[in-house]
Write a structure and sequence with these properties.
Blueprint (H helix, E strand, L loop, with lengths): L2 H18 L2 H23 L4 E7 L3 E2 L4 E10 L5 E11 L2 E4 L4 E2 L5 E10 L3 E11 L3 E5 L2 E6 L6 E6 L3 E5 L5 E3 L20 E11 L11 H7 L3 E7 L4 E6 L13 H20 L3 E6 L2 E2 L6 E6 L3 H9 L1 E2 L6 H10 L6 E6 L4 H13 L2 E6 L12 E3 L10 E3 L3
Parallel strand pairs: 2-12, 13-24, 16-17, 16-21, 21-22, 22-23
Antiparallel strand pairs: 1-3, 3-8, 4-7, 4-10, 5-8, 6-7, 9-12, 10-11, 14-15, 17-19, 18-20
Helix pairs in contact: 1-2, 4-5, 6-7
Length: about 400
């Protein structure tokens, strides 16, 4: 309804009241016109200078970790909001503390619903704490605000399109039985092309090259020569491990997917990567999996400090039928410049993968962690196994067995 329509209706009512000589009708017409005008003006201005923000305190959270989400509503105008209803879509896999998340219209989210009032020039800030119990890239939002006139006659809906991402890492378990893999990989040797350098083993300086870290600049030599010089250190002895993750639970795409087995595979890979990094190894990752927002092949080169990238990549793995794992093994064997030992994490070793694994082992060390029960044909290739029914959600350690 428009103000012009209200004025015409009021004028018609006053004319009728004059014809009928009814004072009651005059009062009723003016009261109705005033009420309708107030409703129209309120509806037009109800969301003017009203802001909504939703701020997670972290963008990356470990599995089972706490996340605090701050929701702020601000009414920066003289007109108060007698009632305001907030409906905000939150991802699944969040366990709330002290409040309730309701089922939403979409199957992949839940909803925070709150009703409150905002006075003139008032800001309301509320904090919500949740536990993150589902790996993956999650999104908060969008949100819907609904408000209306003080009489509750008509409401106005305003959608806030902003979304905030939160990445939940896979659960990391303590690895027991890691020594089962030491027969093939983890051969520690000095690298010709250093993965890390020991600053204590300084043996000279050289001219600065673009890309050298600033903390390695030798300022005395720079002042003496008038040109930037960098400290030259001896390479440290650092073993590198590259995890090769196979998420192909089923052989054919038409057989579907196994989300629970994929979750276990990600937990195994994340736990092994963390254990190797804690032992002083550079870690990397290659896989036939696909990750959220990027359809390129998963390829993280082994290097010192790459653990965070490996874990975040595993967090973004999505459950889709993958490419053949034999291609990942073949590409690894064909990389003549690679020096890292390989650790395969796989639920199956099919004939093509077994042949590619044999070629890879001819080039460098490679061990196999089998997630499931290997068949007699697969057993000779397996160095350690994880039971397929292992309950990683309630366990604190990852068992590796022959």
């Amino acid at each position: 309804m428009r103000l012009r329509s209200i004025l015409w209706a009021a004028l018609a009512g006053l004319v009728a009241a004059a014809v009928l000589r009814s004072g009651t009708l005059v009062f009723a017409t003016l009261a109705a016109a005033l009420l309708a005008g107030l409703v129209v003006i309120t509806r037009r201005r109800v969301f003017r200078d009203v802001t909504f923000t939703r701020t997670p305190d972290r963008r990356v959270v470990g599995w089972g970790g706490h996340l605090e989400v701050t929701v702020t509503l601000t009414n920066a105008k003289l007109l108060p909001l007698v009632w305001l209803r907030l409906n905000d879509d939150w991802p699944l896999g969040l366990e709330p503390h002290g409040f309730v998340l309701e089922p939403a219209r979409w199957a992949d989210c839940q909803r925070l619903s709150q009703t409150l009032s905002l006075k003139w020039y008032e800001r309301v800030r509320r904090h919500y704490r949740v536990d993150c119990t589902e790996r993956g890239q999650h999104w908060f939002g969008p949100a819907t605000l609904e408000a209306g006139d003080p009489f509750g006659i008509a409401g106005v809906v305003n959608e806030v399109a902003g979304r905030e991402p939160v990445l939940v890492l896979p659960k990391v378990l303590e690895v027991t039985g890691l020594d089962l893999l030491s027969g093939r990989p983890l051969v520690e040797s000095a690298a010709a092309r250093s993965l890390a350098r020991d600053p204590a083993e300084l043996h000279g300086t050289r001219p600065y090259v673009a890309g050298d870290p600033l903390h390695a600049v030798n300022w005395r030599a720079t002042a003496r020569t008038g040109a930037l010089h960098t400290n030259e250190s001896e390479p440290t002895s650092l073993a590198a491990v590259r995890l090769l993750l196979d998420v192909g639970v089923h052989e054919y795409a038409w057989e579907g997917v196994d989300p629970e087995r994929v979750e276990l595979l990600c937990v195994v890979a994340a736990s092994l990567a963390t254990a190797f990094a804690a032992g002083g190894h550079a870690v990397g990752l290659a896989s036939n999996a696909r990750v959220t927002g990027d359809w390129r092949a998963v390829d993280v080169e082994p290097r010192e400090g790459a653990l965070d990238e490996v874990l975040e990549t595993l967090a973004r793995v999505i459950v889709l039928p993958p490419d053949a794992f034999a291609g990942v093994l073949a590409a690894e064997a064909a990389d003549e410049g690679a020096a890292a030992d390989c650790v395969l994490v796989t639920p199956a070793l099919r004939p093509g993968s077994r042949a590619a694994l044999a070629r890879l082992r001819a080039e460098r060390a490679a061990a196999v962690v089998f997630v499931g029960r290997p068949s007699p044909a697969e057993r000779p290739f397996v160095d350690a196994a994880v039971p397929p029914d292992f309950d990683w959600r309630t366990s604190g350690a990852l068992p590796l067995a022959r």
